Model the fold of this input.
Amino acid sequence: MNNSDYVVDRGRRAMPLQLTGRQLAFREELRAFYTDKVEPGWRERYDSFEDLGAYLRDWEQVLASRDWAVPTWPEEYGGRGADAVERAIFTEETARFDAPEGLNRLGKRLVAPVLWQFGTPEQQQHLARIRTGDELWCQGFSEPSAGSDLVNIRTTAQRVSDEWVINGRKIWTSFAQFADWIILLVRTGPADSRADGISVLLVDLLTPGIEISPIITMSGHAEFNEVSFNDVRVPAANLVGEENAGWSIVRSVLQDERGADYCLARYSDIRRIFDDVVSTARELPAEHRAVAHLGADYARVYAIQVLASDLLERGQNRTAPEGLESLVKLYTTETWRTMGDDQLRWWGAPYFTEGPKERLHDQAESRHFTISAGTSEIQRNLIASRLLELPSGRKKVA
Ligand SMILES: Cc1cc2nc3c(=O)[nH]c(=O)nc-3n(C[C@H](O)[C@H](O)[C@H](O)COP(=O)(O)OP(=O)(O)OC[C@H]3O[C@@H](n4cnc5c(N)ncnc54)[C@H](O)[C@@H]3O)c2cc1C
Done:
């Protein structure tokens, strides 16, 4: 467990946030659970991504056994109905204890809100299995020619009597090799219908005609996959919401994906990495260039803490202007990337390859987060159009 300054738990350097009795009890129960269950150094024990995946899948069940799988879900669906501060506490304590996140992040954070907002009662039956870790989900949105510009998707679904017949290809599908189901964006309108011809389908990955091909990344692991669909038939009842009205679901998913929980989680990651760098720098002579640079990095880390606190408080009061989450996402993920580049310059590759495993993992993640959940260029466009209210036709950045 590390002792950084976080957003809720501000250590000794900032004004403490006043927590209610319920919030304090939430934190104490979570700390007791993590103290009991998190095995220090768990990452070091797994050489293959498959073994790590199996461990993370089991961890979902450990979380569920003590009611910590989905604390942020509403109580009516089996969650704890955590408020904004409790959500932040959950994120921070998870980082503080370096607890595994599990393997069903997409099911719990992305699919579940879609199901309770737009799903039929039958579709909502998936929620119980997601909560217990018995059903793992992945996200089939991106395609080779449609990532940032999702309205270009070409995977089609045609209605044939009481089924949908799917053909096409998805790419960058995280954890598909471990998943049981996929939430899929498909074109159900004419080829040129863009946002007006998109629908959302729930697809069992064991359906005949689906092929999952892992893609090895620079970390040496196959976190991503390409998933192809050849005449895949799924029941008509697996359509979420109305036919051709899937774009509003996509918008709500994308907004959630980079919201306050996301930003707080990234702040917690950055804080942990920064603390590691500072402890390495303690061994350096005062004139080493890293020492002066760390002052600048600390200014950025501090600014992110303030931004994340602001986002948290505005989230609580529902006063966040549209576009603020893009600003926090951009600044947070770009800072992480800059810090990663600095470490590489100061200490070279051995800092990552010969240190604890998580350093190499964190360095790869510094790239990942400037691309996933909307690239930095897209966030800049969103800040310009939503916060500065500039014309949204200004798509190209200099
Ligand atoms: C770690 C990771 C996990 C992922 N997991 C999943 C997943 O599980 N499921 C899934 O569906 N997808 C996933 N993705 C895909 C991710 O959503 C896309 O990579 C992302 O949306 C960018 O799309 P793209 O790769 O096609 O790049 P493109 O959209 O082709 O962009 C290429 C470059 O052009 C820039 N660009 C594009 N449009 C504009 C514009 N209008 N203005 C200015 N610049 C622009 C981009 O910023 C980028 O630099 C994941 C990606 C990563 C990195």
